[in-house]
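Reviewers of the previous submission asked for a worked example of the structure-prediction workflow described in the proposal, so we include one complete record here. The input consisted solely of the amino acid sequence. No template or homolog information was supplied to the procedure at any stage.
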Amino acid sequence: MKHPKVFCIGMHKTGTTTMGKALQHLGYKVKSSIPLDDPRIKTINAQLKTQLPLLLSRFDAFEDHPWPFLCEKIDRLCPGSKFILTTRHTESWWASVEQFFGTKQTLMRQWVYGVGHGAPAGNKKAYVTRFEGHNAAVRHYFKSRPSDLLTIDLSDGNNWEKICGFLKTDIPSVEFPHAHKSANYDKHQRLANA
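From that input alone, the workflow returned the following structure tokens.
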């Protein structure tokens, strides 16, 4: 049976890589982030225009950037798709983003957070506003179609049950994967749940 396409539309550092690994266990051909810093093509939108058709034809699940910011476009291009919004407590998310990316500037993060915000260092307000705004916008977009969106915080547990129930697949006989877990993540989760 052919899988519906699945788009993981949570922002980076919310368990996107973990979701990719989980979907691979379920038999999906997964595409992670797209490198969109090609100096020959000046804008990310132009790069996406050239890459999207091929990627959508070759893969059936997608995670990491730029997928979260294309969900409405993807929804129109790929009707019948399923969307998974991975979330995380805001302060825990911010601490992980700041620690992981620091002062490193990228074109992708400028596209996501705005010109002058290509690195998280010194830009907490812009990053948090975008993170919380994105999550709210996704929930609003799917509010009349709850069967097409799963919102999940992977730190809450029972992940196979939630994901497989949503995708209507059997639960695999392997432990749920976890990529990039850090002590910093654990510390902030404990604080968030205290």
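Confidence is low (pLDDT under 50) at residues 183-194. We consider this example representative of the routine output the project will generate in years two and three.
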